[in-house]
Write a structure and sequence with these properties.
Rubrerythrin, domain 2; five-stranded mixed barrel; 1 helix; 4% helix; 50% strand; binds zinc ion
Length: 146
């Protein structure tokens, strides 16, 4: 699909997007989620973390009713880079670039493809971006040249 065709209904779906790379970011150590323990009853709760959030938030509520006191037990981290993709053909209307979050493993495997100016097809899950309204990001599972 084209970047311009991504809509809210596509969020959390696995899609294939085509575009041209125009930015490759630095490696970032990102937190993907964490395990929290309820201080009242000891239940462990896993909560995923938005890639763009700098801070991890504790769960909102435990099934026992506690909604304030949680201890962070562990967190899942990943080495990830952000690349930006834009349309490679002229399109009508506004074209908002798509942020692609891509694991360092995949970057290393596909060094020839993941370069500024390359036309690529990326498969992954669409998420809402916190950059603004109608902004999306994609968590890459696979990338190939086209
Ligand atoms: Zn609890």
């Amino acid at each position: 699909m084209r970047i311009n065709e991504i809509r809210v209904k596509d969020v959390h779906k696995i899609v294939e997007v085509i575009g041209k790379i125009y930015f490759v970011g630095e490696v970032e150590h990102i937190k993907l989620g964490g395990k929290w323990e309820c201080q009242s009853c000891g239940t462990t709760i896993h909560k995923s973390h938005h890639l763009e959030d700098k801070k991890m938030y504790s769960p909102e509520r435990c099934s026992c009713g506690n909604n304030r006191k949680f201890d962070l037990i562990s967190d899942d981290k990943a080495d990830i880079r952000k690349i930006k993709l834009k349309e490679f053909e002229k399109v009508l209307g506004m074209s908002i670039p798509l942020d692609i979050w891509i694991s360092e493993d995949l970057i290393e495997k596909e060094t020839k493809i993941i370069k500024k100016g390359k036309k690529v097809k990326v498969r992954g899950m669409i998420i809402l971006s916190k950059r603004g309204e109608n902004c999306y990001a994609l968590i890459a599972e696979d990338i190939s040249g086209i």
